Amino acid sequence: MKVPYNWLKEYIDIELSLEEIAERLTMSGLEVVNIETSADKFDNVIVGEIKQIEKHPDADRLTVCKVDTSKEILDIVCGAKNIKVADRVPLALIGAKLPMGMHIKKSKIRGVTSYGMLCSKKELALGDEDQGIMILSKNAQLGESLENVLNLNETVLDIEVTANRGDCLSIIGIAREIGALTSKQVKYPQALKECSANKEIDKLIDVSVKDTSLCPRYTGRIIRNVKIAPSPSWLAKRLEAAGIRSINNIVDITNYVLIETGQPLHAFDYNKISGKKIIVREAKQKESIFALDEIKRQLSPDMLVIADKKGPIAIAGIMGGIGSEIDEQTTDIFIESAYFHAGCIRKTSKTLGLSSESSYRFERGIDPNGVVSALNRAVYLIEKIAHGKSVKEIVDIYPKKFNRQNIQLRIQQIKRILGINISRNKLKSIMLNLGFEIKPDGLNNIKVLVPTYRHDISREIDLIEEIARIYGYNNIDTTMPRGQTSSSGKGEIEKQTDALKNILSSCGMTEICTSSFTNSENLDKTGLSSDGVKITNPMGDDQNIMRTSLIPEMLSVIKRNLNRSVTEIKLYELGQVFFENNSSYHEKTYLCCGIVGNVSFFDIKGILETTLYKLGIEDHCLCYKEHQIFASDCSASIDVQGRRVGIIGEVNSNVGEKYSIDEKVFLLEIGFHDLSKYINLSPVFKSVPKYPASERDIAFVIKEDVSNADIMNVMWKAGGEIVEDIKLFDIYHGKQILSTHKSMAYSICYRSRKRTLTDEEVNQAHSKIERQLTSQLDIALRK
Amino acid sequence: MKAKIKEIEKKFSLEIESISLPEHAEKIRVKYLGRKGIITSLLKQVSALPNNQKPVWGKLLNNLKTNVTARINEKSTSIKPSKRAEAKLDISLPGIKPVVGNKHPLTLITQEIKEIFFGLGFETVTGPEIETEYYNFEALNTPEEHPARDEHDSFYITNKALLRTHTSPVQIRTMEKQKPPVRVIAPGRCFRRDAIDATHSPIFHQVEGLAVDTDITFGDLKGVLEVFAKQLFGRQTKIRFRPDFFPFTEPSAEYAFSCVNCKGKGCRICKNTGWLEIGGAGMVDPEVFKMVHYDAEKYSGFAFGMGIERIAMIKYHIHDIRMFFENDLRFLRQF
User: Fold this and answer.
1) CB contact under 8 A, B123 and A539
2) Are residues B329 and A566, on separate chains, in Cβ contact within 8 Å?
3) Is B123 part of the contact surface with chain A (CB cutoff 8 Å)?
4) ipTM of this model?
5) By the CB < 8 Å criterion, does B266 face chain A?
6) Rounded CA gap, B189 and B107, in Å?
7) What CATH number matches the domain at A42-150, 1.10.340.30, 2.40.50.140, 3.30.9.10, 3.40.1350.10?
8) Model confidence pLDDT, tens digit, residues A614-639
């Protein structure tokens, strides 16, 4: 809300500086987000004095003036006739920007250089006079900036009003708040004396309200013989400072009173009201209206309208219709001041996608008992400015009066919630300054009567907040909570994810954090189904599905980094993916790892193995399993205790092409929720071996298609329990070996936990392994 | 025998003084102390001596051995430097760095925040990212017609399901499950339909905090957040509270920390205010307690929220929120 400071000062005496007031308001909940001044409007326009006027050597109509700026004397070429020596005038210096957009530069005019420009009122947008230079008072300080001299500085406070404080969406509302903070009274503006509702006016206009719950109060007055004209400049300027465009005197006055009091008003052209009937009712099926923004709006029966005999002439509380608009021919007007149901206005505004200064205030609640005074204020201004004459009587349909809330405040509750001891006197003065009335209510309580503009206060806790607010949050002592805690710190899953991130990061992997949104094209690229959870109102169609896999974004991130010439890439992400199942939604945590660079499948497999080992997961293996994103010969499922938990492999060229990635990419994706139950973060110590180990190597030639896993299986089984470890240390293809075969070399470590093994025992086991390999896998030993 | 020892000593002295290269010292060591060295052989002969003489000679020979060893060592150390002069190690050559990975800055800052609250007796809870209208708004005292919803431009899945706009629904889910005392924090991802710019992202992260007990006060809320501020940004950090509005807390506050960069003097980061707005907080509104069947006459509590990106940006001097989601390795590797 924009609050012009001079306007504000009309209603409240302010003894503090502008900055102090802004600070006080901010610290009481009305944040002053900005203080704007119009200082840059007349940048570089100063007061100059004419020292000498000479004819221009080459132009009869021009003169060359010597102008004193207090610092120097400048030559200025001028065409005006009204100036004389010793006049003080507005001088736009080189570099000045004038309100009409003119930019002052050094220029030669018919051979004479002019170092600036003397300005007319029109050039400064201070009036319509363009004949002659604006002559300033002799007292105007030489060299001083024009806006200081003319006191043109309009300072505007930009105040952020929270959703609960509809009562502060007006200049008077802000003044009231300052009054509460500085113990000062608000000075209310002049208005016509209230006059009672009278049957006389019923002959001129017949008003009926169909649903008084949606429109609890409807008031209006008629003013005849108004003269529609542009607003006087003070009015237009104030509205402009408050951020509202000036239209004509009548519309401007209704807006002025809206900003001043917070009460939205609407002026109808009385003669355009068909049948002189006003009906406040819900819209009928298929009704529509051309609102003032010239857009046709389709209405529905849950919307409240103001209708005449023919149909809707305004969308209640939001915007008037074109049909009853004030125009240059208007002579008689009907001014509406009403109180509409906040929720109803908000709903209509949302449905129509149409909001206005009025709807904004109705949604946040206005004062039902301020409706008439605002109306009378507007009528007063209209009579004064637009020369109308009001009909004496007023329409006021207000069947059920809103009374002030009467709230019990238990004194000890203040201590219980805020932790402060506050004296009775302090409490009393806070309440009174806020405009609340208090009555004693036993020893420990008070009764508080709250003005009807404070919709946010209906409970004891609301009063406690008011006390805290005015007392000052920063004056409340800081304490620490006492009592027992239920804390167990980290949860089990959290410990696991923390451990996982530690392991992966120590494996040289870097964590990424990507968007939860994707789109069908992205899912398509990786061959994933686009049956994801869909967002009905996405930011764009490229972000309309909740991700079902972390792989598409992983590939995008890899591509982005390759583009930036990063060649060694090792990334992981732990994040939520989303699924829909019979219109219920499931979230799962997935882990995705991706590596590119000087790496092979065995790097990603190694990362997996280390990770599983560190997480205490032992029984796991990879099984060949085709997957649409992986190359057919390098694609596997990750199984833990026989259960599939994820996939691993090399991204196939088809998918790589779609991401324009030429490099080999190795990926794995694991359902963390599936893995979680196998994780054991508390390893149990096994004693280190006491007895020495014996190592024996074995090397043999074997058919290409026999896997390491098959060989290992045979060796483990044949070796028996004295085999502690088997390591592959060489695979060889070469001239000495058939192309259908490979040479494999293993190192076998034998050890007993109970005693030192004899050579004989080791030899026996080793030769059994050799025999079994020969018989089962048809190896040829290399000696 | 004594004379022999003297002679050996004399000869050794001459030899050891005359050398200038370490390898010569080694030669002398072999000559006297090697397996077949002069002193070693004499020591071997001791075993053949009569029993009463063994200790005497053993002692003499051992003294000799000790002296000779010491002098060889001494000499070889003293002549070493001259030998290495030309092959001095260039310690300015680059170290061989082990490859380490990095956690995402948002993970790091979240862990740091959590650790502080663990120390204050809080535990972690979580909730779903796809929420219902009920948990995201209604149970938080924000019915549909409430204007406060304007600040929560939401992504909808259906009429009743949406992406949570804040972590506050976890408050409700926690209180539904658990009786007081409650002291929890809930970090997590949130979504709002905010246009992307340097300080806004439709995807962002928050940490929610909630404490409910028989006598929790606004002063306690201030205390907890003050301790948090000081632990996160240093002892000199000040905290400021000012009234704000949230439908689910009453009284409500916005809290700010004194600017970490300029220490409150005013700079570009704090827009010359000296303060950095961190988040919203307040005392749990009795309406919220009603929704979860807590007795507001018996229990009181506070809740707070903060933006994780915001804190990470302050802590690491990051000026653009988009950096967190670009996943540029040149950025990520700095953490």
Assistant:
1) no
2) yes
3) yes
4) 0.80
5) no
6) 12
7) 2.40.50.140
8) 999 988 999 999 999 999 999 999 99
